């Protein structure tokens, strides 16, 4: 059985596959740096909150995409802050990286699920099929994840930012493990489970279509 320190090292290794893990851009909680930087931490927490919001707030009868105006307003700050820093217009902070990541991830989850419901991936995908819209109609004004739901996502992102911000530098180990599991679970799901699952589902649909007379 792995010790706590060995699990931390495993988390760090998995995180290193997708993140620079620069210490000055990574949150220190419970005596350890989190497995990924502040921005990626926000993204993975945001993705989880976005999926949870989908469970309760999606319009099961609608076929229109998530409101694109509010979704854009939630995702653009991350791009603006990232490129603004990249081109030397300003120096970002971990607070900015965290909140922009949270907003981005929360908006990305419904956009991702909706996109996976469209052609050529149209159809129920294992595990996430329960969250997918029954139909997808891009020009339908009746949104599957509407403005109200997205505004609740913004409020939730702010709450999560305040909660996470309050434990930075804390010596409590439980918050590290909670956030660490969310981050690693997000990495494994989005990069190691979902892609092959989509390929298998697409291949199965292709075989089924070719068998039709």
Compact description:
The chain is an all-alpha fold. Helix content is 63%, strand content 2%.
Describe it for me?
With 213 residues, this protein is mainly alpha-helical. The protein has one domain. Helices cover 63% and strands 2% of the residues. Strands 1-2 form a two-stranded antiparallel sheet. Strand 1 and strand 2 form a beta hairpin. The radius of gyration is 19 Å and the shape is globular.
What order do the strands of the largest sheet run in, or round the barrel if closed? 1-2
The chain-level mean pLDDT equals 93
Task: Give the ordered list of helices and strands.
Answer: HEEHHHHH
Number of domains: 1
Strand content: under 5%
| Rounded radius of gyration (Å) | 19 Å
Tell me the helix content.
Answer: 55-70%
Structural class: mainly alpha
- Work out the number of β strands: 2
Taking the sheet with the most strands, its summary is:
2 strands, antiparallel
Gross morphology: globular
Number of discrete helical segments? 6
First-to-last CA distance: 54 Å
Spans where pLDDT lies below 50 across 5 or more residues: none
């Amino acid at each position: 059985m792995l010790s706590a320190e060995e699990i931390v090292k495993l988390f760090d290794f998995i995180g290193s596959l997708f993140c620079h893990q620069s210490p000055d851009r990574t949150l220190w909680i419970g005596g350890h740096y989190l497995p990924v930087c502040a921005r990626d931490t926000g993204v993975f927490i945001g993705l989880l909150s976005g999926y949870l919001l989908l469970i309760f707030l999606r319009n099961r009868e609608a076929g229109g995409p998530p409101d694109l105006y509010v979704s854009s307003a939630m995702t653009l700050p991350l791009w603006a802050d990232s490129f603004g820093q990249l081109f030397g217009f300003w120096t970002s902070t971990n607070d900015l990286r965290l909140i922009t990541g949270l907003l981005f991830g929360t908006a990305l989850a419904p956009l991702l699920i909706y996109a996976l419901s469209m052609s050529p991936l149209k159809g129920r995908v294992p595990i996430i099929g329960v969250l997918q819209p029954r139909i997808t109609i891009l020009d339908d004004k009746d949104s599957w994840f509407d403005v109200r739901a997205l505004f609740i996502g913004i409020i939730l992102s702010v709450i999560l930012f305040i909660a996470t911000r309050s434990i930075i530098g804390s010596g409590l180990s439980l918050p590290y493990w909670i956030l660490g599991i969310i981050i690693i679970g997000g990495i494994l799901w989005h990069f190691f489970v979902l892609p092959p699952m989509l390929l298998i589902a697409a291949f199965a649909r292709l075989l089924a279509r070719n068998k039709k007379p």
